[in-house]
From TrEMBL:
The lineage of its organism: Bacteria, Pseudomonadati, Bacteroidota, Flavobacteriia, Flavobacteriales. PROSITE patterns: PROKAR_LIPOPROTEIN. NCBIfam families: choice_anch_J. Residues 46-282 form the DUF5689 domain. Coiled coil: none annotated. InterPro entries: DUF5689 (IPR043744). This is DUF5689 domain-containing protein. It comes from Thalassobellus suaedae.
Length: 481
């Protein structure tokens, strides 16, 4: 009898084990549609991504920080997942867009949204390309890290959708679509491209970061930020990679090619970034690079005892184009020029400075040159260059310090002359703080001969994502007699 009881218990345990082993944990916990089931929401209950964004904008215009969708509003949005947390570069969020490609109409433009969810491993259920519906009743729309976000929340900020409720809110269909990224150059990205999948061609890692990993350098605290640049325009954008990603220690390919990822903003909402789902999204498979010519004599250990010229722009008129004997203020594209500027705000000028601002220009492109007087390096063989730079919300616009040994001094020949980069000179970066001024260092010019011009070149536009402000001051060339 005792032996029979043990046999019965063993049979029961074995049966339970067999039942449990036949049920996948994900399938057991999350009710998913079968292959034959096609979930759909009535058309009269579906709203558009544009309507969601406009509702948020309307709330902001009314003085609110978020927009609420009331519990009795039986409305949904329909979208496709373009993010994946499988490799750890996205965390507790879904990025969705309303189209599978970049087809665009005035009635329904291609747009994206972030959905904030307090759940990990979302890609196990909502993988890349999965079509989903978001039940909007009771949710809030706001801004998180600079991008439009859907979640829960109060009157102040968007908060995460919690684990106990997200399955009823994020409705998974059985459709997995092929997502075709929008092919775009970094200088043509706009706010409408945020939270959408983009592809940038003919890109490469900046030459000063060759050999770097995605996010395991000593300077990488939470994210690795690596500068990518366009071989077509020279425009740069930062690639952001989490230090928790599976591929953080992988070395970034050193050639050039295409990159596909989600266009977004950094954690502090200071600059544009692209975030990839995995290393397979970076296809820098061409061994050829497009690095500029450089003049790199390094930094001098001392400053010359005599001064060839010094310019602090104090004589210039505020908000008027720079006009100085021997200097060239040239507009290559757009309507804006380098101008005199004075500010006492948190990012104060050094008295009066030279400024280039493309914000509110309305121009599709702004390119401006401010070029120094000629320097005869055969006469002043020990010449050094120093200057200071600052920016205010650079927004992916950029300033370069260039040199030419063959420019004849006429505006007509500026763009046809040979210009290289003074690589030893430090110029304020997009990721630098906008408050302080940055010293260039004492740039040695002694390894060049002949006559040289130094140019401070701004590249930007009137677009919100490319309309930064740069300031320049205290430009001086010294030498030893």
């Amino acid at each position: 009898m005792i032996q029979l009881k043990y046999i019965n218990k063993l049979c029961i345990l074995l049966g339970v084990f067999i039942i449990i082993s036949c049920v996948n944990d994900d399938d057991y916990n999350i009710p998913l549609p079968s292959d034959s089931e096609n979930i759909s929401i009535p058309e009269n209950k579906i709203t558009t991504f544009r309507a969601v964004q406009q509702r948020y904008e309307q709330a902001v215009n009314s003085g609110d920080l978020i927009a609420r969708i009331y519990e009795d509003e039986d409305i949904y949005i329909e979208g496709y997942v373009i993010s994946s947390d499988a490799a750890g570069n996205f965390f507790e969020e879904l990025i969705i867009q309303n189209k599978i490609d970049d087809s665009d109409t005035d009635a329904d433009p291609r747009l994206g949204l972030k959905v904030d969810i307090n759940v990990g491993s979302l890609s196990d259920t909502y993988e890349f390309g999965r079509k989903i519906y978001i039940k909007l009743a009771g949710l809030t729309i706001g801004e998180s890290n600079g991008v439009i976000t859907i979640g829960k929340g109060d009157a102040v900020k968007v908060k995460q959708i919690q684990a106990a409720e997200y399955r009823d809110i994020v409705i998974r269909t059985n459709e997995v679509a092929t997502i075709i990224p929008k092919v775009v150059s970094p200088e043509n990205l706009t706010n409408a491209d945020q939270n959408t999948l983009i592809q940038m061609d003919n890109m490469q890692l900046n030459r000063f970061e060759l050999g770097a990993t995605y996010a395991s350098e000593s300077i990488d605290e939470y994210d690795g930020l690596r500068t990518l640049e366009s071989c077509d325009s020279g425009t740069s954008i930062l690639m952001q990679t989490s230090t928790f990603s599976d591929f953080k220690s992988v070395i970034i390919p050193q050639g050039k090619g295409s990159i596909t990822g989600v266009f977004s903003r950094d954690f502090g909402d200071d600059f544009n970034v692209i975030i990839v789902n995995s290393v397979t999204d970076v296809n820098f498979d061409s061994s050829e690079r497009c690095d500029p010519i450089e003049l790199d004599c390094g930094l001098a250990s001392s400053i010359g005892t005599s001064n060839l010229f010094y310019e602090d722009f104090e004589s210039q008129k505020n908000n008027k184009p720079i006009v100085i004997d021997g200097w060239t203020n040239y507009i290559e594209a757009g309507t804006e020029a380098w101008e005199g500027y004075s500010s006492t705000s948190s990012n104060a000028s050094l008295g009066r400075s030279a400024r280039f601002q493309s914000a509110s220009s309305g121009d599709a492109s702004n390119i401006g040159w401010l070029i120094t007087p000629v320097i005869d390096l055969d006469t002043y063989s020990s010449a050094t260059l120093r200057f200071k730079t600052s920016n205010s919300l650079a927004d992916s616009s950029f300033m370069e310090v260039l040199y030419s040994l063959d420019w004849d001094g006429t505006e007509d020949h500026i763009t046809s002359a040979t210009w290289g980069v003074l690589s030893a000179a430090y110029v304020v970066k997009d990721s630098d703080s906008f408050v302080p001024w940055f010293n260039s260092g004492t740039v040695d010019l002694s390894c060049a001969t002949g006559t040289i011009h130094i140019a401070f070149k701004f590249t930007g536009s009137g677009q919100d994502t490319f309309d930064g402000v740069y300031e320049l001051d205290e430009v001086r060339v010294d030498y030893v007699e």
